From TrEMBL:
Protein name: Type II secretion system F family protein
Domain (Type II secretion system protein GspF): residue spans on this chain: 121-241
Topology of the protein relative to the lipid bilayer: Multi-pass membrane protein
Keyword Metal-binding in record: no
Compartments where found: Cell membrane
Keyword Metal-binding found: no
Pfam families: T2SSF
Keyword vocabulary terms for this entry: Cell membrane, Membrane, Transmembrane, Transmembrane helix
Length: 286
């Protein structure tokens, strides 16, 4: 009797496993019938997600917080809290610079969208569409109107003041070319001039201005490289000090003369980078 207990236990375990598998097969069949045949795991397939609750946490790390990471590494190497303080002060400045760069990229994308809008409207007009219909379809494809898209499209479809709506949309960064589109629209409506020909000339002018800006940026690439080299000179000096067997971080952060040199050098470095960047940015203006 005692020797038969393991056999009974094995039978019971097998029956329990069969019931579980049959239940999984029934659940899979129900999902296929009522969930539209989505992604359903195979019958009897084990998945750890069924037994372990998973909490998905999405953490968005901003790039400016990397200043604290670099400052933390430098603080460990220098055994001082001053790099952490400097890194904390650099976080808002880096965030401001990154946001300005993102706004500049968004401005360029909007300017390219306005150029594409002019070409698309001219093409729709030549295809036989009326001006309001051409603007409606072209604006939906290019996305050049931004937050004022609904107002401009409503004016185009229902006979509103399209030039005024375009001028309001031109207030956004990079959308100043819409002022020319509004002027072409006003001239075509009031004077009966050809809107497609005016849009072609406007598109050519906007493209020429964009190409001129890109050529100027390419010519100033060397100047920006010089600014970046000036920013890296202190790091090169520290590396040379380590290569010569000195301990520049200990001198800079743990001696009075080093702290004075660090303060004066950091101030001069910041002023030099600001002045060089200002000169180069002034050269980028058309």
């Amino acid at each position: 009797m005692v020797t038969g207990q393991p056999m009974y236990a094995a039978v019971c375990a097998g029956a329990a496993a069969w019931l579980v598998l049959d239940r999984e097969r029934g659940l899979r069949r129900a999902r296929l019938l009522f969930a539209g045949g989505g992604d359903v795991p195979a019958a009897g397939a084990w998945s750890w997600r069924r037994w372990v609750p998973v909490a998905r946490v999405r953490v968005r790390v901003r790039r400016e917080w990397l200043c604290l990471v670099v400052a933390g590494v430098l603080a460990v190497l220098a055994t001082s809290v001053l790099p952490l303080v400097a890194g904390a002060c650099a976080v808002p400045l880096a965030g401001r610079w990154l946001r300005a760069a993102e706004r500049a990229r968004a401005r360029e994308r909007r300017a390219d969208a306005v150029i594409a809008l002019c070409g698309a409207v001219a093409g729709e007009l030549r295809a036989g569409w009326q001006p309001g219909q051409a603007l409606f379809w072209a604006a939906r494809d290019t996305g050049a109107l931004g937050g004022e898209e609904a107002a401009v499209l409503a004016a185009a479809r229902f006979g509103g003041d399209v030039p005024e709506a375009l001028r309001r949309a031109a207030r956004e960064d990079g959308a100043d070319g819409l002022v020319g589109l509004a002027a072409c629209w006003r001239v075509a409506v009031d004077g009966g001039a050809g809107l497609a020909a005016g849009l072609d000339r406007l598109e050519a002018a906007l493209r020429e201005r964009r190409d001129q800006r890109e050529r100027l940026r390419a010519q100033l690439a060397g100047a920006w490289a010089t600014v970046g080299l000036l920013a890296l000179l202190p790091v090169v000096a520290l590396a040379m000090g380590w290569a010569l067997g000195a301990d520049p971080l200990r001198v800079l952060f743990h001696t009075p003369a080093g702290l004075c040199c660090l303060a004066v050098g950091g101030l001069l470095e910041g002023m030099g980078l600001w002045w060089a960047g200002r000169v180069v940015r002034a050269g980028e203006e058309p």
